[in-house]
Amino acid sequence: MGPLTGEDGISRCPWGGGPGVMRDYHDREWGRRVSGESAYLERLTLEAFQSGLSWSTILNKREAFREVFHGFDADAIAAFDEADVERLMQEPRIVRNRMKIEAAVTNARATVALRDVEGLEAFVLSFAPEDPPAWHDTAEMATTSAESKALSKELKRRGFAFVGPTTMYALMEAIGIFDPHLLGCFRRGSA
């Protein structure tokens, strides 16, 4: 399926066609570069929490995630202990999955450790594809790439968790490492 024209007369990737949180995310954020450690850690964390769920579920809980994870400040999250994990397991405004919560803490600690090398942002950007994809319709779209597989492998080697190749591909799309919009989508080329 190619881009769809919404009731507002604008052509978008099909998943962002209807009014609401998904369209807002598509139009304002998806595929746009972010900067700074906390922005990268937020996206990495939310992509991990999304695994097995709909993205709209995560978007609807995003403000609560930001609150309970202290604006995705790596130092603050890295200091979480078992009591903090238990507190988050009782927090109804977020996804209460122990493995994902523990992965968020693990990833914050790994992010802090990565500062001694190049930092999370530079590290993730170093896996940008040399030949970015350009799709006409959703049937052509991939869910992994050689770059997302390499990023996943290297993040795991550096102590990160819940960073599989599909999750890392979604991260690369979300933060605009390449333009993920379909050809014909009004956002294509505007990142």
TrEMBL record:
Q: Which residues form a coiled coil?
A: none
Any Pfam family from its record, for instance, is Adenine_glyco
- What is the protein's name according to its record? DNA-3-methyladenine glycosylase I
Q: Which species?
A: Nocardioides mangrovi
Q: What is the lineage of its organism?
A: Bacteria, Bacillati, Actinomycetota, Actinomycetes, Propionibacteriales
